[in-house]
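Box 3.1. Reading complex inputs
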Amino acid sequence: MARQVRAEVTRASVLMAAADVFVRLGYANAGLNEIIEQSGVTKGALYFHFSSKEDLARGVIDEGQVRLTAGVTSVSDGPTPALEALVALSYVAIEAASADPIVAAMLRLQHEIGDYQGTDGNVVTAWQQAFERLVGRAVDEGDIRTEEDVAPETLATFLLGSLLGTHVVATATNAFDELPRRMERVWYFILPGLVEPSKLVYFRQFASRRLLR
Amino acid sequence: MARQVRAEVTRASVLMAAADVFVRLGYANAGLNEIIEQSGVTKGALYFHFSSKEDLARGVIDEGQVRLTAGVTSVSDGPTPALEALVALSYVAIEAASADPIVAAMLRLQHEIGDYQGTDGNVVTAWQQAFERLVGRAVDEGDIRTEEDVAPETLATFLLGSLLGTHVVATATNAFDELPRRMERVWYFILPGLVEPSKLVYFRQFASRRLLR
């Protein structure tokens, strides 16, 4: 292998091993030695790429964010109406986390590392901005009702909080398996406050069908 | 002072200093030396009460939980209708966290310590159970509509997720000052899915007035 390719393979091995250890043990209890052992690289190779456990955790957050964003972008930037995209991406995050340890570790480390930053900027702020764009578009498309004093920003903050909080409660109580069903219920309870009564059945069914996919 | 009283004062000083440092720096960056310095106790005195940073963090979580529960119990066990108690206690948690660093640290450390445990059991599970009782009572009182397949447990999980997530997003983006207003919006958006249309105006106003108190 060319040197650069080898370096990339090493970095990827370290990130994958780190994600697995972080998901299992959490940030506080994860040890660099265990990560080194599991990745099969040397201590020197790990330190070539990451200077500390914190640096490694931020690297996992960055990579998890890239992977999740890839799935999210394919849903939210296509021709799908924005409210359907919002519903769909709440499931995409769950599916990505259960299929990919790096996404799962990202979601966990965000909280544990304390400042919600990868190596570059705030992860939750990035989500907030993505939600604002989608809510703004759903309002323009006539699917989300605008009332007197409700800015898309306010609604985006509420939605992000409800979805993120559903992850947090499931994480805290070890109920990952129930997450898709709980997400469907979040939409069930929230939709009456977001859409015209005439559209409620459609969007509730949309959320239920997405669950069964 | 009698020895026991002195020990309690020492323990309280350490907890308060620890809470302040944890809130400012987060679990990962908080140092025992800084906590010792700020508390004004000796290293030996600290280690008499707490064996490690982790032990200290769990002590802060325990104490924060006790203090928050005191405020919550006075709201939720009185004659107040349960849905009003649920609205009120979402503000009580914000007010307690802004008035008392130990409660603020508890809310932060819950996530950062990774397993959501104090020294004794899961903090989020305890909240979940309290929410279930209140939701069950609000259903009995006729304020929360029951639909076909919605168990109080499901609704409690949803509510807890939405309220906790609102804290998480505010913590992550440094927007504590906006929390009361955001909490009022959470109820504004959620209530249409919980109550009869004829009661919507009353409960939305209840949430708004509680904000202004």
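In summary: Chain B has a mean pLDDT of 92.
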